[in-house]
Design goal:
alpha/beta, eight-stranded parallel β-barrel, about 15% strand, globular, binds phosphoenolpyruvate, binds manganese (II) ion
């Protein structure tokens, strides 16, 4: 796409010509559930699957994730469908274990300023350089976020993807307020790629496509989307997860929008 015809506005666009989708269920619930999503993602020619093994739940009585069993399920499905796997690590004590099973490690919003965890993840990934998807906290500023990246990168892994997932504001119409302006701001202030998680700020599946379209148009390098074979039966975040059929339509629309910007969805 051509530049805006205003010479004083520089191109704060994007890092590359691909947009990476991190799709998959909120929680890994069973091998059947995960397999179904993996099969859909692979059929669409995408690269990554996400899934929660250790879940940061507000209520300790809510489903906490299958732990190592989920990591095994992810590894098997990744191998079977040729997909890379991404999961959250919540606890410094789990870093080596999680690292040994998956291709990418996620830091969740609730651990935004868990500096010992960030440092440990940096240490564990220093040799492998596996990507670390680092989510913004509910109340974190971009300056705090970029500063804290050094806890990871100082250990020797600069393969960090920042992930905006919505912040807390006075607004209650959406689950969180998606700060789409972080995309050009992060591109202006750092060299890290930025992912937009469209599911957690939406909180409701019918809002997800519009946020995803906005993510592509804003220049995001990556998009996270939760997908579940049967959202009403999901053990976490059912209302915001797309069915595989809905996801397929969304990816097809995203591909058309991405093409306008000369980019490919992978
Ligand atoms: C998730 O992606 O599974 C998750 C728990 O997200 P967040 O940390 O953004 O709430
Ligand atoms: Mn979720």
């Amino acid at each position: 796409m051509s530049q805006l015809p205003i010479p004083s506005i520089p191109d704060l666009g994007t890092k590359g010509d691909t947009i990476t989708i991190f799709a998959g269920p909120c929680s890994v619930e069973s091998s059947e559930q995960f397999d179904e999503v993996a099969s859909c993602i692979s059929d669409l020619g995408l690269t990554w699957i996400r899934g929660g093994a250790f879940k940061p739940r507000t209520n300790p009585h809510s489903f906490q994730g299958l732990g190592e069993e989920a990591l095994r399920i992810m590894k098997d499905a990744g191998a079977k469908y040729g997909l890379k796997t991404l999961t959250e690590v919540m606890d410094s004590a789990h870093c080596e274990l999680v690292h040994s099973y998956v291709d990418g490690l996620q830091v969740g919003a609730r651990n935004f300023q868990n500096f010992s965890l960030l440092k440990k993840i940096g240490e564990v990934t220093a040799d492998s350089h596996k990507p670390v998807l680092y989510k913004r906290g509910f109340a974190g500023t971009v300056a705090e976020w970029l500063a804290a990246c050094d806890y990871i990168t100082d250990q020797g892994n600069d393969n960090v993807i920042l992930c905006e997932r919505g912040i807390r504001t006075f607004e209650t119409a959406t689950r969180f307020t998606l700060d789409i302006a972080t995309v050009p701001v992060v591109h202006k202030q750092s060299l890290f790629p930025i992912c937009i998680d469209v599911s957690h700020p939406a909180g409701q599946r019918d809002l997800v496509p519009a946020l995803a379209y906005a993510a592509v148009a804003s220049g995001a390098d990556s998009i996270m989307i939760e997908v579940h074979p049967n959202p009403p039966a999901a053990l976490s975040d059912g209302p915001q997860q797309l069915t595989p059929a809905q996801f397929e339509i969304l990816v097809s629309n995203l591909r058309e929008i991405a093409a306008v910007f000369g980019k490919k969805i992978v």
